[in-house]
Amino acid sequence: MMSNENLETETLEELAEKITRYATEADGLTIEAAKMIRATRVRIENGEAGKTTWSEWARQNIKISESRLRELQRIAGAEDPKKELERLRNMTSERVKRHREKTKSAPLRNAGAIAKVTTAIENDRNNLIEWARSAPLYHVTKVLAFTQQFDAVGANSDISAPTTPIVS
Known about the structure:
Order of helices and strands: HHHHHHHH
Number of helices: 8
Radius of gyration: 32 Å
């Protein structure tokens, strides 16, 4: 572990490198990285890095995500850093569990959006088949003529244009 005295004598670049390394290590080093962040932030805010703000300096020098940086700051500010670390881990674990449950119920990676569209289209298809079975033959012929025209010219056809029915 590192003493507070070392935090004040190391360069800001050395602290940034250690924070990056420690933040991905075991619990003890994670808590140590959190303490370093707190001490480094005080030094930055006291003007040691010039006119740069803490968030600008951290973004440029500490190579971890902003969310991880905020998490470490929460740990450093907690009355009991070990309990805070555990609390954050539990929250993350629950969030991952909910996400996995949500995506498990959807067969596709996009949370089932395509499956929902496919289901709606399948329902429309079934309704159309049912209508075709009971509609007058003349109306079914008009619909078939329209769809054949659409299929012949592709997506550029004007679906609002009237068509001439094909009668066999």
